[in-house]
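Holo model, NAP. Inputs:
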Amino acid sequence: MLQLLDGKATALQIKEEIANEVRSLTAQGHRAPHLAAVIVGTDGASMTYVANKEKASHEVGFTSSVYRMSETTTEKQLLETIEFLNNDPDIDGFIVQLPLPKHIDEQRVINAISPDKDVDGFTPVNIGRMVLGEECFTPATPMGICTLLRRYGIETAGKHCVVLGRSNIVGTPVANLLSRKGFDCTVTMCHSKTQNLKALTLQADILVVAIGKAEFVTADMVKEGAVLVDVGIHRVEDATKKNGYRVIGDVKHGEVDAKCSWVTPVPGGVGPLTIVSLLQNTMQAYRKRL
Ligand code: NAP
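Output:
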């Protein structure tokens, strides 16, 4: 029988746990944790993501600040802002919302973030620590996926996990985390050059889909009883909705879900856990600085 990996409910539960910890620490006289975000330009999706992060920060009692910079900001100006945030003792962690405008070198900007404040877990130092199994800030979306599998008690040891996508922020880190001791999956990572993709997805006990193509995965690609994690987020026009759009994933849920044992819905699956993971990483940074 199909069951939901309910990201919304799990996120609420974790936010309550964080809020309780923050309340208890501030009652003892400590300052609140402080998460900052930098956004360059006015891309609609990015502004929504940053607004959601700000809202979640307030919900758990964090101090939150947003540095809004214009589309024409130079790389030098952005690097100066990062330097300022790296050195500001009141800020525990910060994120730079991606994507950045084309004239800015994204990797150079990420490399400038202090690994100790890199709560998105995107810097080479944190990625390196993650691969070595050392203490680190784990990238938020992969961490959210792992949290969902753990909290729902999904059996992972020895299971064949097929990951669709090899991006630095989702596919590559999630493949790494699920193959590590503790999760113990046997992982196959697929990308746009993979041959016979369907033959591989049909072997998946756990299928993680992060390819950025709306409703790409169809029922004929999924094994009966599989655990399905859909990371994709796409807005499609929908005149029946108040805001004029609805959100769909990388999986055609209408026909796929019935074959699965567990599924992350879209929306309300991986998305809410991504934000919560950022809050958890900020708590981790804050505790170190107490
Ligand atoms: P991305 O950087 O665009 O990477 C997509 C990956 O999919 C690439 O590795 C690409 O292969 C692979 N791919 C593309 N077409 C393929 C095909 N036909 N067969 C097999 N592999 C294929 O995407 P991303 O940043 O990882 O994001 C993926 C999706 O997750 C997007 O919809 C994004 O909006 C969503 N997302 C959601 C959250 C959340 O919180 N829920 C967070 C982040 C991202 P190549 O490497 O060969 O190009």
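The chain has a mean pLDDT of 97. The two ends are 46 Å apart (CA to CA).
Archived with the compound record.
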